[in-house]
Amino acid sequence: MSQPDPCFGSEKMLSADEARAALVAAAQSVTETESVHLHEALGRVLAVDVVSPLDVPGYDNSAMDGYALHSASTAENGASLPISQRIPAGHPGGQLAAGTAARIFTGAPMPLGADAVVMQEECEVEGESVRIGRRIAPGTNMRPRANDIASGDCILRAGDKLKPQAVGLLASLGVAQVEVRRRVRVALLNTGDEIVEPGDPLAAGQIYNSNRYSLTATLQQIDCEVIDLGQVEDTFEATRTALLKAAESADLILTSGGVSVGEEDHIKAAVESEGAVALWRVRMKPGKPLAFGHVGKTAFIGLPGNPVSAFVTFSLFAMPFMRVMQGRTKSFPVPSRARLPRAIEKPLARREYIRVRLEHQLNDLPIADAFPRQGSDVLTSTVWADGVLEIPEGEELAENSALNFWSFESLLS
Ligand code: AMP
Ligand code: MG
User: Fold this and answer.
1) Span 331-354, mean pLDDT?
2) Least confident of 89-98, 277-286, 359-368
3) For atom 15 of ligand 1, which residue has the closest CA?
4) What is the distance in A from the centroid of ligand 1 to the CA of 260?
5) Which ligand 1 atom sits nearest the alpha carbon of residue 306?
6) From the CB of 302, is ligand 1 less than 6 Å away?
7) What's the per-residue H, E or C state across 133-201?
8) Least C-beta-crowded within 10 Å: which of 35, 114, 143, 256?
């Protein structure tokens, strides 16, 4: 008999780690790929390993402006060598005549018969000759062929997200087009009859829609295609219709708000009517309610409505899911460490992620300075903070304890 999925009870209390592991395990990568030019490659996810077609550098070359020679032509108490040729970068010279030196410039091919370069600052030119004051070891100031990459080396892996350095590396191999996964399509919808769009006037009891904008911006930043379905009326029918529309074209449906079990919360029932959903109560602060399931074949993640909770749960749970969808190999960033400036004598039973700013310390880990108001509606804290410090559940902590820290930058990349 197959085991029931521990994460798919209708209302489950999960630890933050269990919730993340369940999401990562359930995520499926998009399989379609496309070929893009290097100019469009930044932030895309490689679909295939890249094997170098070339040696880089392709020939032995000079690392300095100076004089190329054979090390055997130099001597302990100096030697004067006739300058037999001049080799600028891009202009290969001829064979080096024995006992002579070639004027050479950085990046220029080493002439056959030379095995070292003496930098010009160390040389004394005397008419048509150059004087080298000491013995020079073979290989000095020379960059041998394939010093960086040998033809056939695997230099980037499928699942790597292309950063600027990687784009440069591909260019150095002469690669102009790369095969990447297609972008993940995310349909975004917000609930809440109290929500008004920025630019419109506010009536009594209304607030501006911030989740739509923070989530859209985040999805753009991580290179997703956003299908913005806007605001959905707080009724079962409107929610169901919007979800069906979203499921038509998206890989993932992301909602904010309306995910609890109040009578104004319709997300759960509407998702259930067209698929399946589990409502997780994650033992963490901020955040708690997190819904996960599917509408038809499209994955569904329901974030809490409170702006800070939506942002933090997106960063900690939706992001790992999305990285897998994007076809990336690493689903979650490695934390760094920072010090807690105060003691915690009465630990909470749930894990806390507090918004902190790091203060650099000489010869020690940085100190994590907490924003004074940690409420889940205090959006200023997310702008002020560098990231979140993880306060483990149920543990007394001494002042200066070293804890896990994730920058927002690492969580949202
Ligand atoms: P809910 O999860 O729908 O009960 O919402 C929880 C809190 O988040 C309420 O105070 C909502 O007004 C607020 N909220 C929900 N959606 C948004 C949104 N898109 N932008 C700003 N605040 C929101
Ligand atoms: Mg609501």
Assistant:
1) 95
2) 277-286
3) 305
4) 11
5) 8
6) no
7) CCCCCCCCCEECCCCCECCCCEEECCCCECCHHHHHHHHHCCCCEEEEECCCEEEEEEECCCEECCCCC
8) 35
